[in-house]
Amino acid sequence: MVLSEPLFTPLELRRTMWQVMFEEYEVESLYTAAPATLADVWRRSNAQEASAREAGLVVDFGHAATHITPIFDGTPLNYAAKRIDVGGKLLTNYLKQLLSARHFNMSDETQLVDDMKTRVCYVSRNFQREMKVAAAAELRAGVTNPLRCKYVLPDYDRNHHGFILTK
Question: Where does the chain show beta strands of DSSP type E?
Answer without folding.
Answer: 2-4, 31-33, 55-61, 66-72, 75-76, 82-84, 151-152, 164-165
